[in-house]
Design goal:
about 75% helix; mainly alpha; single chain
């Protein structure tokens, strides 16, 4: 890689990495897991940087990779999580994650597909069409997932207010 490419990648990483960790943390519910996923996305970016740096939105590429990695990790670990829940007497939060606010807890209760559309639409400020393109699903699917997710979040957040 040329020196200019290396410097461009460093600048891109320093701006995008913290932002992307925040987004992926909302998807995974764990900052530590988000940091691992984002690191993996950037590792995949490095050999492709000379090409991707010329894209209109290279941040969209690395975000897409991170979102897909998070979904894959969730899918692969789901069966292990079920096993551990059966083995432990209570479902204790991970103390390494620290405090999770009401919104983070509510998001964590959503299924991953709903969480993906909510985070991409509201946090990343992507349009319905962009979310659909990013996830490879129909716009109508995005709209229905957003609608169901808003309803679930509303119920969850209202019940926490009254608790």
């Amino acid at each position: 890689m040329r020196a200019a490419d290396v410097e461009g990648l460093r600048e891109f990483y320093s701006v995008q990495q913290p932002r992307l960790v925040g987004v992926i943390s909302l998807l995974t519910g764990s900052r530590a897991e988000a940091e691992d996923i984002v690191q993996e996305a950037f590792v995949r970016l490095v050999p492709r940087w000379p090409k991707i740096s010329r894209y209109d939105a290279p941040d969209a590429w690395v975000r897409l990779v991170a979102v897909r990695l998070a979904a894959n990790r969730h899918r692969n670990s789901h069966r292990f999580a079920q096993l551990f829940r059966r083995l432990t007497p209570e479902n204790a939060p991970d103390p390494a994650d620290g405090y999770a606010g009401d919104l983070e807890r509510a998001l964590a209760e959503l299924p991953m597909p709903a969480r993906q559309v909510v985070v991409l639409h509201y946090v990343c400020d992507l349009s319905v069409a962009q979310v659909a393109d990013t996830l490879g699903i129909a716009e109508g699917t995005v709209k229905s997932r957003l609608s169901r997710a808003r309803e679930a979040l509303s119920v969850t957040l209202r019940s926490e207010d009254h608790a």
